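Run log, item B.
One chain of 231 residues. Sequence copied directly from the ordering sheet:
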Amino acid sequence: MNDTCDLEKYIKRIKTIESHEDQIIQVLKSFLELFPLLDIGLFRYSPFGYLTEGIMAITPEEGLKHIRDMRDDVRTLPCVYNAVRTRRAIFLKGEDFVKYNPRYTFTSKTSSILFIPISFRSVVVGMACSTQFSESNKKIEELLPLFTLFGEMLGELFEEPYLINDNYCLLNKREIEIMQKLSIGETTKIIAQSMHLSEFTIRDYIKLSLKKLGVKDRTHAVAILIKQGII
Protein backbone atom coordinates (compact mmCIF):
# COMPACT_ATOMS: atom_id res chain seq x y z
CA MET A 1 0.00 0.00 0.00
CA ASN A 2 1.49 3.33 -1.07
CA ASP A 3 -1.00 6.09 -0.32
CA THR A 4 -4.53 7.00 0.70
CA CYS A 5 -5.84 6.10 -2.76
CA ASP A 6 -5.65 2.43 -1.78
CA LEU A 7 -7.68 3.12 1.35
CA GLU A 8 -10.33 4.97 -0.64
CA LYS A 9 -10.64 2.08 -3.10
CA TYR A 10 -11.39 -0.32 -0.28
CA ILE A 11 -13.92 2.07 1.26
CA LYS A 12 -15.73 2.29 -2.09
CA ARG A 13 -15.74 -1.51 -2.32
CA ILE A 14 -17.25 -1.84 1.17
CA LYS A 15 -19.95 0.71 0.29
CA THR A 16 -21.22 -1.49 -2.55
CA ILE A 17 -22.03 -4.34 -0.15
CA GLU A 18 -25.67 -4.38 0.96
CA SER A 19 -25.55 -6.81 3.89
CA HIS A 20 -24.28 -5.25 7.13
CA GLU A 21 -22.62 -8.52 8.23
CA ASP A 22 -20.92 -8.89 4.85
CA GLN A 23 -19.69 -5.31 5.22
CA ILE A 24 -18.14 -6.21 8.58
CA ILE A 25 -16.39 -9.21 7.03
CA GLN A 26 -15.05 -7.06 4.20
CA VAL A 27 -13.80 -4.48 6.71
CA LEU A 28 -11.81 -7.22 8.44
CA LYS A 29 -10.44 -8.53 5.14
CA SER A 30 -9.52 -4.99 4.12
CA PHE A 31 -7.29 -4.59 7.16
CA LEU A 32 -5.47 -7.82 6.31
CA GLU A 33 -5.10 -6.94 2.62
CA LEU A 34 -4.05 -3.32 3.12
CA PHE A 35 -1.68 -3.71 6.04
CA PRO A 36 0.94 -6.24 7.27
CA LEU A 37 -1.48 -7.80 9.77
CA LEU A 38 -2.05 -11.52 10.28
CA ASP A 39 -5.10 -11.23 12.50
CA ILE A 40 -7.74 -8.58 13.14
CA GLY A 41 -10.69 -8.18 15.49
CA LEU A 42 -13.50 -5.66 15.28
CA PHE A 43 -15.28 -4.21 18.31
CA ARG A 44 -18.15 -1.78 18.65
CA TYR A 45 -17.64 0.99 21.17
CA SER A 46 -20.24 2.90 23.14
CA PRO A 47 -19.35 6.11 24.98
CA PHE A 48 -22.55 5.43 26.95
CA GLY A 49 -20.72 3.41 29.60
CA TYR A 50 -17.28 3.35 27.94
CA LEU A 51 -17.93 -0.19 26.73
CA THR A 52 -16.30 -2.24 23.99
CA GLU A 53 -18.09 -5.32 22.68
CA GLY A 54 -16.56 -7.86 20.31
CA ILE A 55 -18.18 -8.41 16.92
CA MET A 56 -16.01 -10.58 14.70
CA ALA A 57 -12.36 -11.51 14.11
CA ILE A 58 -10.14 -13.24 11.56
CA THR A 59 -7.14 -15.22 12.84
CA PRO A 60 -4.63 -17.55 11.08
CA GLU A 61 -5.54 -20.36 13.47
CA GLU A 62 -9.35 -20.21 13.35
CA GLY A 63 -10.27 -18.06 10.36
CA LEU A 64 -13.46 -16.03 10.71
CA LYS A 65 -15.09 -16.21 14.13
CA HIS A 66 -17.50 -14.30 16.38
CA ILE A 67 -16.03 -12.69 19.51
CA ARG A 68 -19.19 -11.53 21.26
CA ASP A 69 -17.89 -12.77 24.63
CA MET A 70 -15.14 -10.11 24.63
CA ARG A 71 -16.45 -7.07 26.55
CA ASP A 72 -14.71 -4.41 28.58
CA ASP A 73 -14.99 -1.05 30.22
CA VAL A 74 -12.10 0.82 28.59
CA ARG A 75 -11.59 2.89 31.71
CA THR A 76 -9.99 -0.22 33.22
CA LEU A 77 -7.59 -0.43 30.25
CA PRO A 78 -5.54 2.79 30.13
CA CYS A 79 -3.99 2.07 26.72
CA VAL A 80 -7.34 1.41 25.04
CA TYR A 81 -8.88 4.42 26.77
CA ASN A 82 -6.00 6.53 25.50
CA ALA A 83 -6.65 5.39 21.92
CA VAL A 84 -10.34 6.29 22.36
CA ARG A 85 -9.59 9.64 23.96
CA THR A 86 -7.03 10.73 21.33
CA ARG A 87 -8.74 8.93 18.42
CA ARG A 88 -5.33 7.70 17.27
CA ALA A 89 -3.97 4.20 16.65
CA ILE A 90 -1.52 2.98 19.28
CA PHE A 91 1.02 0.14 19.24
CA LEU A 92 2.19 -1.57 22.44
CA LYS A 93 5.34 -3.69 22.62
CA GLY A 94 8.14 -4.60 24.99
CA GLU A 95 7.70 -3.26 28.51
CA ASP A 96 4.51 -1.42 27.59
CA PHE A 97 2.94 -4.68 26.47
CA VAL A 98 4.16 -6.57 29.55
CA LYS A 99 2.50 -3.97 31.79
CA TYR A 100 -0.75 -4.31 29.87
CA ASN A 101 -3.21 -7.10 30.63
CA PRO A 102 -3.69 -8.55 27.09
CA ARG A 103 -7.41 -9.28 27.21
CA TYR A 104 -7.79 -8.52 23.51
CA THR A 105 -5.18 -10.98 22.21
CA PHE A 106 -6.28 -13.81 19.94
CA THR A 107 -3.23 -16.03 20.57
CA SER A 108 -0.89 -16.70 23.50
CA LYS A 109 2.13 -16.24 21.21
CA THR A 110 1.72 -12.51 20.78
CA SER A 111 4.14 -9.99 22.28
CA SER A 112 2.68 -6.77 20.87
CA ILE A 113 -0.76 -5.35 20.18
CA LEU A 114 -2.26 -2.68 17.92
CA PHE A 115 -5.44 -0.70 18.65
CA ILE A 116 -7.14 1.34 15.92
CA PRO A 117 -10.11 3.55 16.90
CA ILE A 118 -12.94 3.81 14.36
CA SER A 119 -14.41 7.28 14.61
CA PHE A 120 -16.17 10.12 12.89
CA ARG A 121 -15.99 13.74 13.97
CA SER A 122 -15.15 13.59 17.68
CA VAL A 123 -16.90 10.31 18.46
CA VAL A 124 -15.39 6.82 18.56
CA VAL A 125 -17.86 4.15 17.42
CA GLY A 126 -15.63 1.10 17.23
CA MET A 127 -12.18 -0.38 17.64
CA ALA A 128 -10.00 -2.70 15.55
CA CYS A 129 -7.31 -4.78 17.21
CA SER A 130 -4.41 -6.85 15.86
CA THR A 131 -1.82 -8.97 17.67
CA GLN A 132 0.10 -10.74 14.87
CA PHE A 133 2.13 -8.98 12.18
CA SER A 134 4.07 -9.88 9.04
CA GLU A 135 6.42 -6.88 9.33
CA SER A 136 8.73 -5.55 12.03
CA ASN A 137 7.57 -3.47 14.97
CA LYS A 138 9.27 -0.47 13.38
CA LYS A 139 7.17 -0.86 10.21
CA ILE A 140 3.94 -1.12 12.23
CA GLU A 141 4.84 2.07 14.09
CA GLU A 142 5.53 3.87 10.80
CA LEU A 143 2.03 2.90 9.62
CA LEU A 144 0.21 4.31 12.67
CA PRO A 145 -0.94 7.48 10.84
CA LEU A 146 -2.44 5.36 8.05
CA PHE A 147 -4.11 3.05 10.56
CA THR A 148 -5.66 6.13 12.18
CA LEU A 149 -6.78 7.50 8.82
CA PHE A 150 -8.40 4.21 7.78
CA GLY A 151 -10.24 4.12 11.11
CA GLU A 152 -11.61 7.60 10.41
CA MET A 153 -12.67 6.59 6.89
CA LEU A 154 -14.49 3.55 8.24
CA GLY A 155 -16.21 5.75 10.82
CA GLU A 156 -17.52 8.02 8.07
CA LEU A 157 -18.69 4.96 6.15
CA PHE A 158 -20.77 3.69 9.07
CA GLU A 159 -22.07 7.17 9.86
CA GLU A 160 -24.88 6.57 7.38
CA PRO A 161 -28.20 5.99 9.21
CA TYR A 162 -29.69 2.53 9.46
CA LEU A 163 -33.29 1.32 9.75
CA ILE A 164 -34.21 0.53 13.30
CA ASN A 165 -36.56 -2.06 11.84
CA ASP A 166 -38.96 -2.26 8.91
CA ASN A 167 -41.71 -0.42 10.83
CA TYR A 168 -39.77 2.73 11.71
CA CYS A 169 -38.53 5.69 9.74
CA LEU A 170 -34.85 6.48 9.29
CA LEU A 171 -33.18 8.97 11.54
CA ASN A 172 -31.45 11.48 9.35
CA LYS A 173 -27.80 12.45 9.67
CA ARG A 174 -28.41 15.46 11.91
CA GLU A 175 -30.76 13.54 14.24
CA ILE A 176 -28.15 10.83 14.70
CA GLU A 177 -25.47 13.44 15.39
CA ILE A 178 -27.61 15.00 18.12
CA MET A 179 -28.43 11.62 19.69
CA GLN A 180 -24.72 10.78 19.59
CA LYS A 181 -23.95 13.94 21.55
CA LEU A 182 -26.67 13.11 24.07
CA SER A 183 -25.14 9.66 24.54
CA ILE A 184 -21.85 11.18 25.75
CA GLY A 185 -23.61 13.44 28.23
CA GLU A 186 -23.79 16.75 26.37
CA THR A 187 -26.65 19.04 27.39
CA THR A 188 -29.12 20.62 24.99
CA LYS A 189 -27.39 23.98 25.49
CA ILE A 190 -23.93 22.60 24.68
CA ILE A 191 -25.24 20.75 21.63
CA ALA A 192 -26.92 23.92 20.37
CA GLN A 193 -23.72 25.91 20.78
CA SER A 194 -21.52 23.32 19.04
CA MET A 195 -23.93 22.96 16.12
CA HIS A 196 -24.72 26.70 15.89
CA LEU A 197 -28.44 26.08 16.33
CA SER A 198 -30.98 27.29 18.89
CA GLU A 199 -31.88 25.16 21.89
CA PHE A 200 -35.47 25.19 20.63
CA THR A 201 -34.33 23.62 17.34
CA ILE A 202 -32.29 20.96 19.13
CA ARG A 203 -35.29 20.07 21.32
CA ASP A 204 -37.42 19.72 18.19
CA TYR A 205 -34.88 17.34 16.65
CA ILE A 206 -34.85 15.29 19.84
CA LYS A 207 -38.67 15.14 20.03
CA LEU A 208 -38.85 14.00 16.41
CA SER A 209 -36.19 11.33 17.00
CA LEU A 210 -38.09 9.99 20.03
CA LYS A 211 -41.26 9.83 17.94
CA LYS A 212 -39.49 7.94 15.15
CA LEU A 213 -38.05 5.48 17.65
CA GLY A 214 -41.35 5.06 19.45
CA VAL A 215 -40.00 5.94 22.89
CA LYS A 216 -40.85 8.55 25.53
CA ASP A 217 -37.45 9.62 26.87
CA ARG A 218 -33.91 10.28 25.73
CA THR A 219 -32.31 7.51 27.77
CA HIS A 220 -34.47 4.87 26.10
CA ALA A 221 -33.76 6.36 22.68
CA VAL A 222 -30.00 6.32 23.24
CA ALA A 223 -30.17 2.73 24.53
CA ILE A 224 -31.99 1.59 21.37
CA LEU A 225 -29.53 3.34 19.07
CA ILE A 226 -26.56 1.83 20.93
CA LYS A 227 -28.11 -1.65 20.80
CA GLN A 228 -28.66 -1.29 17.05
CA GLY A 229 -25.05 -0.19 16.57
CA ILE A 230 -26.06 3.21 15.20
CA ILE A 231 -24.20 5.19 17.88
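Observations after the first pass:
- Residues 161-169 have pLDDT under 50 and may be disordered.
- DSSP finds ten helices and seven strands in the chain.
Flagged for discussion on Thursday.
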